[in-house]
Each structure stands twice: as structure tokens, then as C-alpha cells.
Amino acid sequence: MASSLLVLLDDIATVLDDVAVMTKLAARKTAGVLGDDLALNAEQVSGVRADRELPVVWAVAKGSALNKAILVPAALAISAFLPWAVTPLLMLGGLFLCYEGFEKVWHKFFQQRSLDAAERAAHVEAVRDEQIDLVAFEKDKIKGAVRTDFILSAEIIVISLGTVTGQPFMTQLLVLTGISVLMTIGVYGLVAGIVKLDDAGRHLSQAASASARALGRGILRAAPWLMKGLAIAGTAAMFLVGGGILTHGFHAVSEWIGDAAVEAAAVPGVGAVLGALTPMLVNAVVGIVAGGLVVLAVTLFKRLRGKPQATAH
Predict the structure, then answer these.
(1) In a domain, 309, yes or no
(2) Structural domain tally of the chain?
(3) Does the residue 214 lie in any domain?
(4) Alpha helix ranges (H) inside the chain
(5) pTM (2 decimals)?
(6) Phi and psi of 30, rounded to 5°?
(7) Is residue 246 part of a domain?
(8) Which of 67, 48, 195 is nearest to 127 (CA)?
(9) CB neighbour list of residue 113: distance below 8 Å, 6 or more residues apart
(10) Could you give the angle at the alpha carbon of 156 between the alpha carbons of 240 and 27, nearest 5°?
């Protein structure tokens, strides 16, 4: 009896150790999505009244938890009944990351001013017009954020699923559940802190202590740069992670990158740095090119689909 209990405890410890290792690996692979999820959700709640920021974040967090409650069983079902579909889904997730990253860059440099001006005008009109229900306006923002979260959560789950393919069902369940909980708490906990940075800065800037006032002014100055930094880091990570998923999906390309990294590492003096940077640079280039091609294909498709409508008038 005692020996059976010890064997059971040893098996549980082994499973938990495997779960911990794979959860860390999955967290590293989903870093790009996490950065983008964090920046995107912080932007989604911008424009909401200060007293409604935290309730909105909480509402989106609950929607995110529901999204993952749907996606985790779906991912486990795919792994159990359609294991061959994991790699194609993973590749599609990586391709979508590249597409989303390139679209963000394209939007930033070519469409930002006109679209942002229209969005600001719509929000100002909503605030000024008494006939517009601000509660409904807020609910629309929440619904949009939850829809976006569903896509990003699907990417997180699919990428995490790729790290546990072939593992026992319990390991897969614990890893996917653990990643879902960590990502939801981590993202929306940080989003709540970020959206309240301005309030904290204003509060400190009015404090009696000179050092507190200086800290408050520093926070107010740093908050916009933090948002910009998160957006840039998230976009860069999307290319790196998405490109890495695509290159690893092709065995020959993955081997070539490994050989190139080994050769770069052999360069005297700077080999260690080059060896680490080579795979990242290749993955980034692949991600940018793949994202650009998908954006081009989507743009052409939209134009072709709209062409018959234009000629019909």
C-alpha cells in the first residue's frame, strides 16, 4: 500500500514537472501574441471614461476567459481526433501573426491619420450627442475587444498545442489550462495597471512631497511612450514568432537556419552574438515577407470582389 502511494506520488510529480517545463516553453512561444494582446487591449479601452476603465477591462477579461473555455476543449478534440491538423493550424496561426503584424505596420504608415481622425470624430460625436447611448457605445467597444481576443486566444492555444502534441491527455489539458489562466490574468492585470497609469501619475503629481510630484510627472510623461513601446515590441514579436513558426514548419528550411547559425557562431570575436541573432533575423525576414504577401493577396482579393459591384452601377 505504501509503495503504491509512493509510485503514485512519483507519477504525479513527474507529470507536474513535465507540465511546468512545457508551460514555460509554450509561454515563450506565445510571447509575440502576448505582447500584441497586451498593447491591443490597452488601446481598446482608451477613450472610455476614467471611472469606467476598470469595469470595461473586467468585462473584456471575462469574455477572454469564456473564449479560452471554448478554445481549450476544441484544441484538445483536434489533438485527439485530428492530430494531423495541428501542424497546418499552427502554420496558419503563424501566417496570421505575420499578416496581422504587416497590416499594423501598413496601417501605421499609410492609413493611420485618416482612420484615427474618423475614430476620434465618432467618439466625440458619441459624447456630445445626447441621443447616443454611451452604455451601448461602451458595450460595442467591449464586444469588439472580445472578438479580437478570440482570435489572439486561438493563436495562443494553437501555438501552445504545438508544444504538447504527442503528450498524454492530462499533460495537454494542464498545459493548455495553465497557459489560458496565466495569459488571461497576466494580460488583463497588466492592462488594468496600464490604463490607470495616468490616474496614478496625476494623483502623485498633486502630492505634498516633492519627490512624489516628480515621480507623478515622470509617470505622466512615460505612459504614452510605454504604450508606443508595447505596440512596437508586440509587432516585432509577431514577425519573429510568426516567421519562426513558418520556418519550423518546413524541415529543410529549419535545418538550413540551424546550419547558418552554427556557421555564424564560428566567426571570431562576434560569433556568439551572430549565432544568436541569425535565426531571429531570418525568422523576422520570413515573417515580414509572408505578412506582406498575405496583405497583398487580401488587398487584391478585396479589389477584385469589389470590381463587379463598381461596374454594375
Answers:
(1) no
(2) 1
(3) yes
(4) 2-29, 31-44, 53-81, 86-106, 112-128, 134-164, 169-195, 197-205, 210-249, 251-265, 271-312
(5) 0.67
(6) -95, 15
(7) no
(8) 48
(9) none
(10) 70
